[in-house]
Every structure is written in C-alpha cells, then in structure tokens.
Design brief:
Layout: E1 6-13, H1 20-36, E2 42-49, H2 56-66, E3 70-74, H3 80-91, E4 96-99, H4 111-118, E5 126-134, H5 140-153, E6 167-170, H6 171-180, H7 187-194, E7 198-205, H8 217-231, H9 234-264, H10 272-311
Parallel strand pairs: 1-2, 1-4, 2-3, 5-7
Antiparallel strand pairs: 4-6, 5-6
Helix pairs in contact: 3-10, 6-7, 9-10
Amino acid sequence: MQKQPVLSVVVPTYNEASNIELHSERTRKVMRGLIEEGLIGDYEYIVIDNCSVDGTREIIQHLSECDPKVRPIFNRFNYGPVISPFIALTKSEGDYVVVIAADLQEPPELINKFVNEISYGSDFEAVIAVKRKSQTGLSVMPLMRRLYYRILRMGAESIVSGFSGFGLYSRRCIEAMDILSGGDPSLRMLLPKTGFKVKAIYYDHQERYEGESSYSMLSYTTEALRTMSRHTKIAKKISVFMIFLSLLSFVALIPAIIIIRLINGVIIAPGFTFAATLFLAWSMPIFISLAVILDKLEQADTARIVSFFKKTD
C-alpha cells in the first residue's frame, strides 16, 4: 500500500496576534479532514515569525505547547515578506508544502483543492492560487498590481498575474527553486524558472479578518522595484534612457543658454554652462549605477541569510 504524503503548511507572520489563532484553528481543521479522507498521512503547521511586537510570538508558542504539530520558527530579525517564507520552505519536512498568509485573506479551506489536484497520479509539481477578485476595498491596489505585472513581463520569465506565492509545492519543486534562488527567493519569479507543470486555481481574495496590514504602500513599492531590478532588464533600459536624456540635455543646454543671453541679455557666470552640462550628463547615470550596485550587494546578503538558515536548526 502506498504511503500517504506528509503535508507542511508554512505561515509567515508579523504582528498577527488578532489572526493567527483562528488561522491555526481553521487550517488544522482542514488538515484533519484530509487525513480522514486518506489524502495525506500527517502534517505540520509551521509558523515563521518576523520579530512581532504585538504578542504574536507568545500566541504561537502557546499553540505549539498545546499541539506538537504546530512548529514555531522565530527569526532573529525581520527579514521581510519574501525571505522569511522561503526560509520556512527549506526547513519544512513534508512531501508537499503549502505557503499561506496569516491574515485569512487567503482561505485555508482552499488547501483541500490543492491536495486534490496533486492526488491520484497527477503530474503537477505545484498548484497555485490566483486572485480572481479582491475584496479589500482598495481601488488603487488593483491598478498598481496590473502595472507591476505588466512591467515584469517586459523582461522576466512568464509569470502569472495575481499569484503572490499562495499555493502548494512538491519537494522536488522546492529543491529546484532553492537551487535557482540565488539572492532573491521570490516564489512568483522562481516557479516559472523550474519548468515544472503547474496547476492554477482561481479564488476571491478575502478581506483581512482583523487588524491592518503590517506592510505599507512604501514597503510593497520597494519590494516591487527590487524584484523588477533583479528579474527584468528594466533597470538597464532605464539606465540607457537616462544616459540618452542626459546627453540630449548636454546638446540642448548650450544653444538654449546662448539664446537666452541674446534675447534677455542675461549675464551668466563663466563656467556655469560647462558645470551645468557636466552635471546633467553624468549625475543621473552615476546615481542609477550606484542603485544597481547597492541592490546587487543586498541580493548577495539575502543569499547569505538563506544559506545560513539552511545550515541551522
């Protein structure tokens, strides 16, 4: 008789004291149902916390003391919403792993569909949840999200709009993404690189159950820019454009100043034209190059963090 797979559920948290207990209850109820149906043999519920300060850690610790299937991982620092779940993925022990947010916008009951899709001899290595409709009530976010994915498609691998990482991954898929991760373990970017067969399930993104999101518009924008810089050619295209713009300014500035002097008789200090032109010609490319260098250094630092956690318990 074939042994039923073990399922790991990875839940990243940061200040989710008002949600994590209910999330745990709903998810473990789903797990018990899957065991009763014979679709999985066992499970673990991994909660990886990014240094919460609202009592989330205490609740997680209490849950783990009451149920040995709850496995806490407490980060020493806040590594952000991308690195933290990937760390938990590499430290999970299941044959399949589900990544799901703690705020209940991603319904735990959808895990039933994930497991059914990979059961009975399926050749899918991942089942992903794609947002069909958002119930967050924010009008600007869907527009920002569509713009973000459109920019990514200009230079990145084929990605799925509305997929944020919520889904189920086989151990084989996780190992492949681990090898490909480098310094940026973004699931939405790594999954297409594996070349594995993936099943998409569409769902309605729910309203946050309690509290407010820990990540501001600035946080999401910063993460989006970082992902675009690392996985697309947009940064190079912008650099080339800015160099062209600077050179154009260089060519246009001198005649413009001469015309102004002839028309208005404005006296311009000696050397001003040269200094202004030089600034326009070289400052922007230098700043862009510096930004790219800093991002690559941060990418290398991210790789060291992931490597460190894989070596520790």
